[in-house]
Write a structure and sequence with these properties.
This protein is an alpha/beta fold. It starts with a strand and ends in a 5-residue tail after the last helix. The strands form 2 sheets. A 7-stranded parallel β-sheet has the order 1-10-9-6-2-3-5. It has a 3-stranded antiparallel β-sheet with strand order 4-8-7, with helices on one face. About 40% of the residues are buried. It has 9 helices and 10 strands. Bound molecules: 2-amino-2-deoxy-6-O-phosphono-alpha-D-glucopyranose.
Length: about 250
């Protein structure tokens, strides 16, 4: 795993945006694995800015998102589909026929089958990941095993606590989601994980210092593959003391 520390969240987001733009400009119809969450809002804003300046076109790009809450449809402001439309798809020229999103209101088994078919027939060129404070990637929650294919998951209490701030009073946060499993995250040609701020310090410290691959820390599976780059900001780096306990490529 390569670690890249930038001074600010915007600097990290700029580096990742440039990486995506160079993939988009050099590969025919690449498949981007996309993620939601507060962490990637500045990244998507940066991509939108580059699109508006004519530096990139997304019309030929295919996308697949990591996960979706069960029970929320695409028009629900809390759905991940809504997030993607709001922050990226509706502000750029992504072609809706090239976008794969899980339907949170679909029949669960058929959505899982549709997701699995898509992922077994397509290889992700670049998978973006955030990380939960409990080490989840996508919604692969800490567990006694790694689950490989797309699956239905009951969200961990820590995830519910962390993500509930996105929901206003009166809105009920779903407790289940459909997520890409570990198999397809590991099959992606390249993985980029972003983590910013003090809240992620503990989990990033664990990721770099624990010496085992443990399904109770789902992100630890990334240690088993190459082409993984982790982008963090200075605040997180300082909080973890990560520069003192690691040798890494800057
Ligand atoms: C959700 C998503 C994860 C993402 C996480 C990070 O839980 N399922 O894929 O990594 O949010 O959220 P944030 O960026 O808001 O910290």
């Amino acid at each position: 795993m390569k670690l890249i520390i930038s001074e600010t969240i915007n600097d990290s987001s700029e580096l990742v945006a440039q990486k995506i733009i160079s993939l988009v400009n050099s590969t025919k119809n690449p498949l981007l694995g996309l993620v939601t969450g507060g962490t990637v809002v500045p990244l998507y804003a940066n991509l939108v800015k580059n699109y508006e300046q004519g530096k990139v076109s997304f019309s030929e790009i295919r996308t697949v998102n990591l996960d979706e809450y069960v029970g929320l449809d695409q028009k629900d402001h809390q759905s991940f589909a809504f997030f993607m439309n709001q922050h990226l798809f509706n502000k750029t020229n992504f072609n809706s026929s090239n976008i794969f999103l899980v339907d949170g209101t679909g029949q669960i088994n058929s959505e899982l089958e549709r997701f699995d078919n898509f992922l077994t027939n397509n290889i992700i060129d670049l998978q973006l990941l955030g990380i939960g404070t409990n080490g989840h990637i996508g919604f692969n929650e800490p567990s006694s095993t790694f689950i490989l294919p797309p699956h239905l998951v009951s969200l961990a209490q820590e995830t519910i606590n962390s993500n509930s701030h996105f929901f206003s009073e009166g809105e009920v946060m779903p407790t289940q989601a459909i997520t890409m499993g570990i198999r397809d995250i590991m099959r992606a040609r390249e993985v980029v994980l972003l983590a910013f701020g003090k809240a992620k310090a503990n989990v990033i410290h664990r990721l770099f210092t624990e010496t085992c691959v443990d399904p109770n820390l789902p992100c630890s599976i990334l240690k088993l593959r190459d082409q993984v780059t982790i982008y963090i900001d200075r605040e997180l780096a300082t909080e973890t003391g990560i520069e003192d306990c690691l040798s890494f490529t800057k």
